[in-house]
Request: fold
Amino acid sequence: MKKVNFTGKRYLDYSSFIKSIFGERVQKISLDIGFSCPNRDGSKGYGGCTYCNNNTFNPDYCEPTKSIKEQLEQGIFFFGKKYKAQQYLAYFQAYTNTYSDLDSLKKMYEEALNVEGVIGLVIGTRPDCISEEIIDYLSFLSEKNFISLEFGVESTLNRTLENVNRCHTFEETKVTYEKCKNKGFHLGAHLIIGLPGETKEELLNHAIEISKLPIDTLKLHHLQIVKKSVMEVQYKRNPENFNLFTSENYIDFISDFIGNLRPDIIIERFISETPQGLLIAPKWNNLKNFEIVAKIDKKLIEKNTWQGKNY
Reply:
């Protein structure tokens, strides 16, 4: 028997989740407030994650030289021209957005929440950069605001995490999620599919391992080699170490991955769209996110599978 949700999808999709909570479309507005990471500044390592170049997802209005209020107001102006009146989430996206002292974080988060139209925060960070006091503060904020805390898991394999210079283990990730569960805010996870050295069986097992974590939402994207990243140099020197997905193979793989995933996890995205000027590989003939999603939907029907079928 096929499983579909009320939108007709064979998985739980993020836009339907948001509309079920707020009754309308809610737009995220990305922020860059000049944070660093512990694997960049020397506290744990240098160079950052080998795949990383934050310019691949920062919009034009998103500059750390501007105040949080300025970035949000410019983002609201930009999206206000595209869509009818709506509500907004301040998305602390670039680098590690809990990597500071609590007083500094309070000022930043509260500045964002005080901007008209902003109803909540989405905070991207690392599992080794969160403290009990920050968790308690976010729990307090969640009493009156929508708060989502997203951790970059990236892989469930320690050898991969070491290889890409994450400077934390999957065991640390699991401990952190346990500390954060049942605190009133939403928990998200981010996975990169196709990091060097991972077999298809290991990639499918990520769905099983990630399903054991107390997460509400999951972001997926295929590995992309981008300019000005360490991985760009590695790829040019030893391309044989990389098994990059074609669009067809990725769509086929994701349809299997979804079947292994816990059925109540909301899937926020399947791919990341890197600006063509920064993307080295793989190039998928400029396929857009909505086109990939449509192909995944079709593949799930062809295979007669759905989220959690094999969970």
The two ends are 15 Å apart (CA to CA).
